[in-house]
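Researcher: Go.
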Amino acid sequence: MSPFIGEILGTMILIIFGGGVVANVNLQDSKAQGGGWIVVALGWGLGVTMAVYAAGQVSGAHINPAVTLGLAAIGDFPWSDVPSYITAQMIGAFLGGCIVYFHFLPHFRKEDDKALKLAVFSTDPAIPHTFSNFLSEFIGTAMLLIGLLAIGSNEFTEGLNPFIVGFLIVAIGLSLGGTTGYAINPARDLGPRLAHFFLPIPGKGDSNWQYAWIPVVGPAAGGMYGAVFYQAVTEANYSTLFWIWTVAVAVLLVGLYQIGDKLQETVKANSEAKN
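Model: Structure:
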């Protein structure tokens, strides 16, 4: 199996388990309906664990463009391989979203809530606020990369690493996930969101494209900066590159803070106009 196929398989497994647990606890007449946030966090964590077991020996099981970009940013992964990895992750996430839909097809037909149907595929904020939502995804993904690099610097019993990585995902979900649904993975959000857009889901609403850039750009930026930050701190090497990244992130966040409210007002006005 090639690394390209490995990333497709791993990301597809991630979405089958992750999107599946969201469908399981939310969709009408599921036996797990009402299972709650802890069940969702455990489902996503174990989904990552299974995905890493499936693809880890083949591709390194990035299963996340933010991980691929983060490792490339610190020189641990070749930039020339980044496009193929991200393409594979997007394909896997799209396929995973489609499989979840067909698995829960009768429940999608019985569910009337358009937002719950979309939630199976992609994230949305508890309180829409451009700056805060972006910052939540940035911080969550930075912690993901810091955690992954910290795990990688330790030795565990052979075969245990995927479980530790899964627990990291659970920790992020339980501690930081309530604000935006913790996409922390551009493919995890955009791939299934595209599946929602194209699939003939009965009674679905729109795919919330006005929000879709946040769980893509936020994790990508957070992943790269988290990796750069961890490397700088652990090696005590605050290079020019580190300060360039830091200044760039600061400018980005300040800019979003300044225009965030205006963007939110525009989105709200557009939404009211449609209604």
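Model: The longest helix spans residues 240-274.
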